């Protein structure tokens, strides 16, 4: 931490200073009220991280766990918005440069959300092939079996592809990881509280988004391991969670799975079992009882996959909107205060917004 920055080093997420100095800030004294706000925030963050611990290994990486992870992230960003209100920002030394950095970094988070949304659309489109196959498997003519087989082949071909935007997520996340090395903080107790809270949320953001990226890319190389100092109250919960989740993902990939998404793996396994049967065309009717059972299993698995993707996509959309709103919150507070100050001094209150 604290290494000199150069033109090639990623810009800091929040240039408030080294987060490890927040515990004992120099030149500013944290009041009991501010300390209570920070401690309450970090207690809630600890609770969110603890609730993401797996009840069983089979739970990761399920779509239901990913949905909980996104809900947890969404709650943390809403908590930041509440903290900003409780701190009664703006602080007097808020700087336009800080806002520009936040706008830049939140734009990157929004880009990641867009990439995830694009991947959801791809997976949902792939599921249309499954639905068409299931529709044809309702009959017993050789023509329908041929169409069903073609649909399943189409599903297999497209499900193993990947949206190019997911690849870009890794670059963005590497940049965010690098920006955890923060520069000096200005002498503001409120700024230090906000910075430390945002630091925790940023760590949570990088972790969750790297897990999603690894899951969607089909590569454990996309995982990011963060080393967080143990001076934060939420560090033990985060370290345990990161260790368990990342280890489980790497284990699954090492076992030859094409995806760590449980629901997707289940569908893939059933399709592999079904294909040899229906490739026989009309002869497949000989295995009617066995075929009906396998088709029913595929129908249930496809429905579970579709519902899981739909719910997760909705949570990512909600997160996207919360990040947008938080940008507005941080833009409005300092600029409204500056406008009042300019008016009181007889200055020009027409301010140019940073975009």
UniProtKB/TrEMBL annotation:
It is found in: Membrane. This is Protein BPS1. It comes from Lupinus albus (White lupine). Its main location: membrane. Pfam families: ROH1-like. It is a single-pass membrane protein. InterPro entries: ROH1-like. Belongs to the ROH1 family. Keywords: Membrane, Transmembrane, Transmembrane helix. One of its GO terms (cellular component) is membrane.
